[in-house]
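Re-run requested by the PI after the first attempt was lost when the workstation crashed. Everything re-entered from the original request form. Ligand of interest: magnesium ion.
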Amino acid sequence: MSIRLIIMGPPGVGKGTQANIIKDTYNIPHLSTGEILRNEIAAKSDIGVVAKKYIDAGLLVPDNILLRVIENIISNPNCSKGYILDGFPRNLQQVDDLNGLLNKLNNAIDIAISLIANEDELIKRLIKRSEVSGRSDDIVEIISKRQKVYWEQTAPIIEHYKKIGILKEIDGLGTIEEITKRIIDIIK
Ligand code: AP5
Ligand code: MG
């Protein structure tokens, strides 16, 4: 079985936490563009040097960089059985870019999962995480900025996946295990 998933939702909603569990359930890679960019920053690569300025400010990294990153990985043989995209696409241009790549590879996304939770809960989770994460964007002002950027630039992509009939909205409140069960029930 091959399955291509997108997991989306605002910062702190649990995209990474859930993708990390689901990847083992379906034996597919978890592709987190945030993680990939943080690794590029740690390696001080060309991409990392540019990405750092945007990530530290809570802004989206330019689309041309993301296209390079994603093109590189989804054409990789270890993605032939599918994958979970976490944090990409993140605006309408990236939806177009992804559709272009998928067309070239002659495949498509099966399910787009949109996790939902209220902003108070998200801020609470991220402030708690900031005590241990070491993430440069886990500071109060930037946590709020990231929420704002999500609603302005990322939320509009939900409509695209609704229109093509593959959107599944899932309540992101509850225990991690409860949410995993909701996701797996929907994939089945
Ligand atoms: P990215 O790394 O994608 O971060 P994000 O979207 O801001 O989301 P987070 O990783 O903070 O949250 P999450 O939803 O993964 O939640 P998590 O599971 O960690 O992006 C970072 C930056 O990179 C962007 O701002 C941008 O600059 C750049 N970038 C990345 N992709 C890009 C793209 N495509 N285009 C342009 N720029 C891009 O959970 C959060 C916390 O809550 C954790 O501590 C977790 O333990 C806890 N938690 C999880 N589930 C629960 C639960 N059910 N109950 C209680 N706590 C929970
Ligand atoms: Mg994450």
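Saved to the shared folder this time. The CA atoms of residues 91 and 134 lie 26 Å apart.
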